[in-house]
Write a structure and sequence with these properties.
Layout (H helix, E strand, L loop, with lengths): L21 H13 L5 E3 L2 H8 L7 H10 L3 E6 L2 E6 L2 H4 E2 L11 H6 L29 E2 L27 H15 L4 H15 L2 H14 L4 H20 L11 H9 L14 H5 L5 H4 L9
Antiparallel strand pairs: 1-3, 2-3, 4-5
Organism: Sphingopyxis flava
Protein name: DUF1376 domain-containing protein
């Protein structure tokens, strides 16, 4: 059963997490939603693909292998079944009434940073009369807290203050991911940032840019600049066609993908289909598109 999880802003700057692909980062967030409260999930790539990326052309098994190679996830066998565990999950997620669904040996409990086995018999009952200034929690506590962060100590008799997490800077995530992909194709960082800015201006929607970047991460086009321009144009055309059609358009996405987009601060109504026009499919293999791009330039 999927659970509500929190995502701390430090997740996007963690040195181990930023080394994996954008799709793998989104997958890691989704695995936290699918895992039990120990941070353990069933290792079933097909089912995970349908729950996390139902309409995206991604290789779920390859994403899991990428996370294992980065040391962010570990797979193991127990009683003839295969499971996965998320590193330091219980350092970042602290549910008030944890559940214990999947089995895990002691070494996996250490990997997820669970100090002691979960006991369903020792659940704390909420205090019907909370102390003055204390607010009962409505959702699970935690959220990808960085290991080096230390909570500030209360001063004097001040009541505990709840600090809301800082809003996610989706534009920074787009620039970081886009620049990294362009650098791998030989562009210098200033030129790469200029190109990403033109993609955002062309799309007029960060949701469209993020959707196209996610697709590009999976397809790895040889000419990323031409591919992205064609993909953005295709996505905008599709959205314009839907907006002119009477009645609400059908939404094939599942709840998990919509929740993941919401976690990124995106409008869930945008960017749910990959680019599908002939131009978008042919962009990675066409050199003629580059000649028609006055903004791409040849500077590297």
């Amino acid at each position: 059963m999927s659970r509500i999880r929190s995502v701390h802003p430090g997740f996007f700057t963690d040195e181990d997490i930023v080394t994996v692909s954008m799709a793998a980062r989104l997958c890691l967030i989704g695995l936290g939603i699918e895992a039990d409260d120990k941070g353990v999930f069933e290792w079933k790539p097909v089912r995970l693909k349908m729950r996390l990326f139902p309409v995206d052309a991604v290789d779920m098994a390859a994403l899991l292998d990428e996370l294992v190679e980065a040391g962010l996830v570990r797979d193991y066998d127990f009683d003839g079944r295969r499971y996965g565990a998320i590193r330091n999950f219980r350092k970042h997620q602290k549910p008030k009434t944890p559940n214990d669904i999947h089995p895990a040996p002691d070494e996996i409990l250490d990997f997820v940073a669970l100090a002691a086995p979960i006991s369903e018999k020792k659940r704390r009952k909420p205090d019907p009369f909370p102390q003055k200034g204390e607010k009962p929690r409505q959702m699970e506590d935690g959220g990808w807290r960085m290991e080096s962060s230390v909570p500030s100590e209360p001063r004097g008799d001040d009541p505990p203050q709840h600090q809301p997490p800082a809003p996610i800077d989706i534009a920074k995530s787009i620039f970081d991911g886009g620049v990294a992909m362009l650098r791998r194709q030989g562009f210098r960082e200033p030129k790469a940032r200029e190109i990403v800015g033109k993609w955002r201006k062309l799309a007029a929607s960060d949701g469209i840019v993020l959707s196209c970047l996610s697709r590009a991460q999976s397809e790895n086009p040889s000419d990323l600049v031409a591919w992205m321009i064609a993909a953005i144009a295709s996505e905008k055309g599709r959205l314009n066609d839907e907006s002119s059609t009477p009645g609400p358009p059908a939404d094939p996405r599942g709840r998990t993908e919509r929740a993941a987009m919401a976690a990124f601060g995106l409008d869930p109504e945008l960017g749910h289909d990959p680019p599908h026009s002939d131009a978008a499919r042919q962009a990675p293999r066409s050199d003629r598109n580059r000649a028609a791009l006055p903004h791409a330039g040849d500077e590297r």
